[in-house]
Amino acid sequence: MDMGIGGRWALVCAASKGLGKGCAAALVAEGVNVVITARGEAALATTAAELRALNPAVEVRTVAGDITTPEGRAAALAACPQVDILINNAGGPPPGDFRDWDRDIWLAAIDANMLTPIELIKATVDGMAARGFGRIVNITSGAVKAPIDILGLSNGARSGLTGFVAGLSRQPQLAGANVTINNLLPGAFDTERLQKTLAGAAAKTGKPLDAVTDARRQGVPARRFGQADEFGATCAFLCSRHAGYITGQNILIDGGAFPGAF
Ligand code: NAD
Question: Which superkingdom heads the taxonomic lineage of this protein's source (predicted)?
Answer without folding.
Answer: Bacteria
